[in-house]
Design goal:
14 strands; 12 helices; six-stranded parallel beta sheet; five-stranded antiparallel beta sheet
């Protein structure tokens, strides 16, 4: 596994645009810090589902009884929680892990500590924390969780960064580091470049000196999207249709063939990623938005020695443990601090 040549706390980002301005639909907050904790006689407000199905049909706003605080527990006021595609899949019952029903929606978010049990030592009231694992149920105004299930983070980073820190950026970071020994100047190709992970890939790659080839679907406001992604640090942006044109051969005369492809779509889009990979390269699949299978040509596997792998950040956390996950989260917080200082 390759790691950056500088230690955490010594990262030196290149002069690229500001880190993590992700304010799109994938980062909508379910609760805002400007609201007081909604707890009292009526209970704690939460978005709950008692059966699997389409969210608009099964999710209900309910008032839950406040949970008692154990000696090793922490009571949190949820500051913000995003709506991720995986959250929708969980509610639909179509994800790799499913909670017992009834359940509160949301697997990610940032909370502020408001009360701690008498055996808690690592956090105090006022601290910001995020869940160490999925399944906490972050779409609620208040939650009680064990100290071991939480990770403390700096409270001086933007709230929307904190609330969306543990899934998409971590997925992007691990895929860039764990599958190929990339060096500054190498290129990475990805589809779904305007997704949450895609935007994180663009920004982390720029900070590591990597070049990104970004593929998006065609749309009426393509130029607006292109400008936004370039503002994040994207170097090259193509539509799916452009990637299939013969002119791409000329493009790769001046840009090195990527050794790493990141696939979130599947189907024909993933086939195009493999076609443009360099010899011995790796395509990592972390999503299947097209709901179509990945088709690999025999020549790609035999003559180009292309490797196909999958990645799921939840499994990575299980394999590596909370300490490694916390180390990665704090590294990403360093990125955020440095970009804010730079700009």
């Amino acid at each position: 596994m390759w790691a950056p040549r500088v230690a955490r706390g010594q990262l030196r980002p290149r002069p690229r645009p500001r880190w993590w301005p992700q304010r799109d639909a994938a980062c909508r907050a379910a609760f805002s810090s400007s609201r007081p904790v909604a707890r009292g006689a009526a209970g704690v407000r939460a978005l709950v589902y008692g059966q699997h199905g389409e969210p608009v049909k099964v999710v209900e706003l309910k008032n839950l009884e406040p949970s008692p605080l154990g000696k090793s527990d922490v009571r949190l006021k949820m500051l913000a929680a995003p709506v991720n595609p995986a959250d929708i899949n969980v509610i639909q019952g179509k994800y790799g892990i499913l909670p017992e029903l009834p359940a509160v929606g949301g697997n990610e978010g940032v909370g502020q500590v408001v009360e701690v049990g008498n055996a808690v030592t690592r956090v105090k009231p006022g601290d910001w924390v995020i869940p160490a694992n999925p399944g906490l149920g972050t779409w609620r105004a208040e939650v009680v969780a064990s100290e071991e299930s939480l990770i403390g983070i700096p409270s001086d980073i933007p709230m929307h960064c904190a609330a969306t820190l543990s899934i998409n950026p971590c997925t992007a970071y691990r895929m860039l580091l764990d599958f190929e020994q990339l060096r500054p100047g190498d290129s990475v190709i990805q589809n779904a470049a305007n997704s949450g992970v895609g935007q994180a890939v663009i920004q982390i790659a720029a900070a590591l000196g990597l070049r990104t080839i970004n593929i998006v679907r065609d749309r009426p406001d393509l130029q607006k999207l292109t400008d936004r992604l370039k503002g994040l640090g994207a170097e090259h942006i193509f539509t799916e249709e452009e990637m299939r044109k013969p002119e791409m051969k000329d493009f790769f005369k001046n840009v090195p063939r990527p050794q790493l492809a990141l696939n979130c779509v599947g189907g024909r889009s993933s086939t195009e990623l493999m076609r443009h990979l360099g010899h011995g390269g790796t395509m990592v699949t972390y999503g299947g938005m097209a709901k179509q299978p990945i088709t690999a040509s025999v020549s790609s596997l035999i003559f180009k020695n292309i490797k196909l792998q999958g990645f799921w950040i939840t499994q990575w956390k299980k394999d590596q443990g909370t300490d490694k996950f916390k180390e990665m989260v704090l590294t990403l917080c360093d990125f955020i601090h440095l970009w804010r200082a730079w700009f």
